[in-house]
C-alpha cells in the first residue's frame, strides 16, 4: 500500500521535528516494503529525497517562512481547490492512507473523505484549538501522536485522547556503532554541542547566558525554519544569541546542518544539551543517543521518558545553570559517563526504523 504524508512546510533539511519525522517514517516504510509519498507546498522541495517521491501542492498560495495565522487564512481561502488537488494526487499515486501531519501545517483542518482511503491525523503538538477542533470534526479514521505526553496534553485541554495511538518518531539514519576508545576520547576532550532551531521555546539564548568554564569547546548550531512564532521572531532570537556568544569565550555559533550531517555531528560530541522548554518527542536527543552520546535536558514533555539513564535530566525550575552543572558532573565522572553512553545507545534501539514502521503500518492499515 502507499501512504501519503501531507505537510505544507516539508522540504529537506528543515530544522524541525515534524519535517524530519515525516521523511524518517517514509524511508522506514520503504524498508519494510511499503510505499510512501510526501505532499508539500514548499516550492524549494525536490522531486525525490532518499528515494521517496515528493509531490508539490500548487493550489495552496503561501510563502515561507510563514506564521500560523497567515497559513490558516491561506488554507481556508483555498480549501476547495486544495481538496481537489489532493484527491488527484492520491488517485495518481494509488494512495490507501493519508497522514495529515498536524491539524494546521498538515492541513488536517480541511481533510476530506476520499473513497477507499483512510484519513489519519497526526498530532505532533496540540496547537491551536481552532485547528484541532476543525480537524476532529472531519472524523479521521485514526489519530496518532509521537508520545504519551501529547495524549496527556490533549486530555488537559479537554480532548478525549483515550482512543489515540502512540507512534513514536524514528531515526532517519542509524549511525555506525562507536568504538569504546573513540567514546573515551570524546569524554576526555570532545566538544559540548547544542542543535536547535531559532525558536524562543528552544531555550538556547537562556543557555548561553550563564555558560561556565568547561575546558572544552562549546558549539551551538542554530537554524531557520520555514515557520515562526511571529514574523521576524527567528531573527530576534539569532541576534540575541549572537550578542551573548560574542561576550562568552569558548562558544561558537554555527549555522544549521543538513539532515545527513546531523548524526555524525552529534556522534562526535562529548555531551549534547537539549535546553528546550517543551518537547513532545525529542528527535535531537534520540539522534544523539543512537550515537552513544549522553544527553542533558530538562524534565519537560517526553524528554524524561525518552532519555531515562541515557544522560541526565534536571528540573526545569532550576533553569539553565543546572544543565551546565549536570554536564560538568557527567564529564568529571568517567564511570557515570560510560554507563550513560551505553544506556543511551540501547535506549535508542526502541525507536529504530523497522520497528516504528511496523507500528505505523498497523495503525494506518
From TrEMBL:
Q: Pfam families, per this entry? A: Glycos_transf_1
Q: Which CDD domains match?
A: GT4_PimA-like
Q: InterPro entries under this entry?
A: Glyco_trans_1, Glycosyltransferase_grp1
Highest taxon listed in the record's lineage: Bacteria
Q: Molecular function (GO) terms listed?
A: glycosyltransferase activity
List residues of the Glycosyl transferase family domain. 195-345
Q: Which UniProt keywords apply?
A: Glycosyltransferase, Transferase
Q: List the EC numbers from the record.
A: 2.4.-.-
Q: Which residues form a coiled coil?
A: none
Q: What is this protein called?
A: Glycosyltransferase family 4 protein
What species was this sequence derived from? Answer: Micromonospora sonneratiae
